[in-house]
Amino acid sequence: MANAIIVLADGFEEIEAVTILDVLRRGGVDVTTASISGSLDVEGAHGAMMRADALFADAAKETFDAMILPGGGQGTENLRRSREVLDRLVRQKEEHRLICAICAAPTVLVEANVLDEGQHVTCYPTCSVDLDRECANVPVVEDGDVITGQAPGSAMLFSLVLLKSLAGEKIAKKVARGLVTNVY
Predict the structure, then answer these.
(1) Owning domain of residue 20
(2) Residue 114 in contact with residue 89, Cβ under 8 Å?
(3) Which residue, 20, 135, 149, 162, could crosslink 128 as a Cys pair with Cβ 3.0–4.6 Å?
(4) Counted domains in the chain
(5) What is the maximum span of the chain, computed from C-alpha positions, in angstroms?
(6) Chain segment 41-81, per-residue pLDDT in tens
(7) What is the CATH number of the domain that holds 34?
(8) Residue 18 region, left (φ>0) first, then alpha (ψ -120 to 50), else beta?
């Protein structure tokens, strides 16, 4: 069974984090939510509280098939300031494992220097100035071991693309049918 870690920081975008968590778990992926806030309780960008499964410092010692960063303005800033997150992203890249970020969070990938020259990404439109490359104006970009999503409205498609990468196309299509969506 594939496994993934969703990194939560105060100010995370709730739609993105919860959609990713739900879709991946529906598809049988073992998902750990991990807080960088020093507490298991993490506050989203719109005031929703989420209790993480673990503290990031503890969970990051494990190996994960995918490391996922939800966006959110303040959440992304908190991720960018976390040396632990940046170091773990480098490890993820060195191990040729999936690195996934949505909305503003692709800027964290730039901060960690884990994008290859010419690697294609997408992000929230106003965040494209913070990337060292052109940001595609599409909902999801999959390029090598990096999957990026554009915004909260892309969260379902982003999640299903992640699921396809982790559990296969058959499972992703089954989950999409169960959710009565045709985005995949």
Answers:
(1) 3-178
(2) yes
(3) 135
(4) 1
(5) 40
(6) 999 999 999 999 999 999 999 999 999 999 999 999 999 99
(7) 3.40.50.880
(8) alpha
> Is position 163 within any domain?
yes
Asked whether the beta carbons of 18 and 71 are under 8 A apart, the reply is no
Residues 6+ apart with CB under 8 A from 125: 135, 137, 150, 151
Q: DSSP of 90-110, one letter per residue?
A: HHHHHTT-EEEEETTTHHHHH
- Look at residue 184 and tell me whether its pLDDT is greater than 70: no
Judge whether 184 lies within some domain: no
Residue 129 lies in a domain: yes
Catalytic residue among 100, 103, 123, 127: 103
pLDDT at 132 over 80: no
pLDDT digits (tens, 9 = 90+) for 143-161: 999 999 999 999 999 999 9
Task: Report the relative pairing of strands 66-69 and 30-35 from DSSP bridges.
Answer: unpaired
- If you search the block for the tokens 């010419």, which residue do you land on? 118
What CA–CA distance (Å, rounded) separates 108 from 23? 23
Residue 103 appears among annotated catalytic residues? yes
pTM over 0.70: yes
Rounded to whole angstroms, how far apart are CA atoms 88 and 102? 17
